[in-house]
Amino acid sequence: MVNFENLEKYRFSILNRYGIPELMPENIDIHKIEWIPFNYAKTCKNPGNKGVHFYIDDYQFARLWNRPDEYISLLQKFAAVCTPDFSMYTDIPVAMQIYNHYRKHWLGLYWQMHEIHVVPTICWSDEKSFDWCLDGEPTNSVISISSVGTQKNKKSEELFLKGCRESIKRLKPTQILWYGKCPEEFDWNVVKIEPHYQQIVRRRKNGR
């Protein structure tokens, strides 16, 4: 019995190179959902018309991987849940990047098994990651992309644009849930989520 890294809970039968669990496509109407970060999920009122995203620091949702069953009943209350945005930085080892991609998909498919509507969060690092970073992602489905932190310099901006083009070309998404600024090139059938730090700034300006 393998009893670590959640393999004791479920071992998915996978055909792709790295054994990345393959998510089922979702065609929910994300326009009708209000999206909140996971760290607000426990105190959220009326979760039935809200969705949960993970565009927050990794440490705030690492517990989902460490204790996945503890959060199933909470996430089931929401209209939809994005897969966790585990970090995919270009300066961390490729092995760690693939591990984070695997964890994201294991949780996503595990949630789908528990009748949770899951929106795939699409992530990549550099162009070499295109060989595996879309493994397990569904085609013709709603997806989510974040542009936050990708516009620091010309190189990172161009890498982000290449990743977006590759993802859209291969996955052919029906809708995109977009976190942060959306380049005009991709601003079609997009539902935008205002980054949390921008919400705080706006509330302070409005005196709330």
Structure write-up:
- It is a single chain.
- The chain is of the alpha/beta class and 208 residues long.
- The chain is built from five helices and seven strands.
- Strand 3, helix 3 and strand 4 form a beta-alpha-beta unit.
- The chain is globular and about 40 Å long.
- The protein starts with 33 loop residues before the first strand and ends with a helix.
As a percent range, the share of strand residues is: 5-15%
Order of H and E elements = EEHHEHEEHEEH
Low-pLDDT segments, ≥5 res: none
Task: Count all strands and give the number.
Answer: 7
What class do helices, strands and sheet pairing give? alpha/beta
- Global shape: globular
Strand ordering within the main sheet: 1-2-3-4
The averaged pLDDT comes out at 91
Number of domains: 1
Summarize the main sheet. Answer: 4 strands, parallel
Summary, kept brief:
The protein is an alpha/beta fold. Helix content is 27%, strand content 13%. A four-stranded parallel sheet has the order 1-2-3-4. The chain has a three-stranded parallel sheet with strand order 5-6-7, with no helix packed on it.
